Amino acid sequence: MDYAKLLTQGVGAWLHFENACGRSELFSERYMASPIGQILYARSGNRAHAEVKHPVLEKLAKGPGRRPEIDFVVYDRHHKVSIAVESKWIGSTTPSIKSILWDLIRLEMVAHHEKSRSFFVLGGRRSDLDKLFSNPGFVSLKSGYRRRPILRHDNNVLHRLYLSPVDTFRRSILKDIFKSFQDFDFPEYVVTRRSAPFPPDQKSRRFQVYTWEVFADGRKNTLKPKNSRHYHISQSITL
Hints:
The protein is α+β, with helices and mostly antiparallel strands. The protein has one domain. Helix content is 31%, strand content 25%. It contains seven helices and nine strands. It has helices spanning 3-20, 29-43, 57-60, 97-113, 126-133, 136-139, 171-178, and strands at 48-53, 69-75, 81-90, 117-125, 159-162, 186-187, 189-198, 207-215, 222-223. The strands form two sheets. A seven-stranded mixed sheet has the order 1-2-3-4-8-7-5. α1 packs across α2. It is globular.
């Protein structure tokens, strides 16, 4: 089943219906959860669940505080994760580059360790989406660097997001992400593929939705942050 297309078109159409009803001021990541949950619930035989503990990070997280979660998961008949979904909304605030990277990495973890399908859903006004896609941190538009966007928004080809420290402009963000997971084996890269946005060719003030499927194809080579001179965090000793 083409869940990326279902999510893109279903959530996009729902936003336009809600906008026609004059409820656009309520739009947020939490508000967008309603159509995502309904689509997954209906298509999975009522096996969708919201805000589920991350099946990998739950075991790795230490200390007090809330354990990492996935926005939505669908379980198969044996209670194994078959689908995982994370979502972001661009509204009065824009998701940070770090938060988007972390969502994609966490989805790859589920895809690899649970053998599941993983999806990242992004919604907002077309003008706000365009600002994100042109953000230097998103596309790495820095003098002397090759263009390596976090996600391809312009076509549906398979795209590699490198986690290995080949892209110097992203090292500091990734180091911050990896600081609590120094012994974990991360993939060399995360592979994604876009489903065509809905509605297509939208006007700048109208709302639009994108969905990318996240694949676990970058595990031929893995990286352990503590073994990387770029990602290693020195442990200070207090006497």
